[in-house]
Q: What sequence folds into this?
């Protein structure tokens, strides 16, 4: 039985008619930049997040970059991020000439550690980027309280956490969160796309200009500020709009699959994901921790089961950031889990039989 890590085709087949119609309608209108699909998606996604504004942009990376820029973060500023995250969290900071300060994570939730944030704050610290890693919300109440006390900005990296909740409420917990609609994300486009969701009107208007060459809407030839081309693609917005109707259902399917894995893996010695009672995990990834990880991964591959490693390098171990001179043994929790993490197949349409087969092959290996 072949079990892929993600299966984008299965989802397409389940809503083929809606997607085909959304794309055809864009081509029929032949308006490929801006337009109604963008504003519709922005309204609908803001509503889903219980937030005031959503600004569609070109990717999750662009969302983080523009959000930081809108809060005036740049040279001389320090931004605290977790060591265990996708490289884009760090890139958004370093690309603005600011310095990211990576800190260790919590061993149970894999989210950024509050104690480590406290230790890393200096007079130059301007912001914290908690990452809702794998789909599990970081401890936002504690982070927000600390940020308030120290006068710091909080920008949530929610690129893996569409529809996740913290204490019964949808994210963002604070003012601003960034989302990615990379095809494999819980809400995925058919190419690159992203969004900044915020309750701050000034930040929203600034990002609307920044994403479009610094122009105010409708002002084709005048750029008010220095900007970029980080617009969301119109066809992608139309696809995302069609998919939005299903996202809550798909989230529940992911959670059910995680529960099935948890049940079947009991007694196997594999460390299953811990869901902190403070939030609702949306299982962008179902990450277990195992002994002999690389050999297990090979065994699963021989049985046509595809797995992933998120992430094989912590931020401080990335060759791209060698110049920062991080010690390679500075983050004990991250370094402990990095050789152990394994992402098992996870997507809404995954069947019980497929999960059963994956677990059977894991048990067989040990
Ligand atoms: C995917 C991801 C991003 C970047 O999103 P892109 O749309 O690929 O640019 C940023 N942060 C995290 C945690 C992600 O998973």
A:
């Amino acid at each position: 039985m072949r079990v892929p890590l993600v299966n984008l085709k299965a989802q397409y087949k389940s809503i083929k008619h809606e997607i085909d119609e959304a794309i055809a309608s864009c081509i029929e209108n032949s308006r490929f930049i801006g337009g109604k699909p963008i504003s519709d998606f922005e309204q609908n996604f803001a509503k889903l997040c219980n937030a005031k504004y959503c600004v569609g942009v070109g990717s999750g990376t662009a969302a983080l970059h523009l959000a930081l820029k809108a809060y005036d973060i740049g040279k001389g500023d320090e931004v605290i991020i977790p060591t265990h995250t996708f490289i884009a969290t760090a890139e958004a900071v370093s690309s603005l000439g600011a310095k990211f300060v990576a800190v260790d994570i919590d061993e149970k939730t894999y989210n950024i550690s509050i104690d480590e944030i406290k230790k890393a704050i200096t007079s130059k610290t301007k912001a914290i980027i908690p990452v809702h890693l794998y789909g599990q919300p970081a401890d936002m109440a504690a982070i927000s309280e600390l940020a308030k006390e120290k006068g710091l900005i909080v920008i949530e990296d929610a690129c893996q956490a569409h529809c996740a909740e913290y204490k019964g409420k949808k994210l963002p917990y604070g003012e601003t969160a960034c989302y990615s609609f990379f095809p494999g994300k819980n809400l995925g486009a058919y190419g690159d796309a992203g969004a900044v969701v915020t309750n701050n009107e000034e930040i929203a208007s600034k990002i609307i200009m920044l994403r479009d060459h610094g122009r105010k809407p409708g002002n084709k030839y005048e750029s008010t500020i220095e900007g970029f081309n980080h617009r969301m693609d119109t066809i992608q917005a139309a696809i995302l709009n069609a998919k939005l109707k299903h996202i809550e259902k798909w989230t529940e399917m992911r959670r059910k699959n995680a529960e099935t894995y948890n049940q079947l893996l009991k007694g196997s010695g594999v460390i299953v994901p811990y869901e902190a009672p403070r939030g609702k995990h949306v299982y962008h990834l179902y990450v277990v921790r195992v002994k002999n990880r690389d050999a297990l991964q090979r065994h699963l591959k021989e049985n046509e089961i595809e797995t992933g490693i998120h992430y094989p390098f912590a931020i401080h171990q990335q060759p791209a950031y060698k110049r920062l001179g991080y010690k390679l043994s500075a983050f004990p929790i991250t370094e402990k889990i990095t050789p152990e993490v394994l992402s098992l197949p996870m997507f809404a349409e995954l069947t019980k039989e497929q999960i059963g087969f994956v677990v059977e092959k894991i048990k067989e290996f040990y």
Observations:
- The first strand starts at residue 53 and ends at 57.
- The pocket of pyridoxal-5'-phosphate is lined by residues 59-61, 85-86, 88-89, 131, 157, 159-160, 180, 182, 192, 194 (CB under 6 Å).
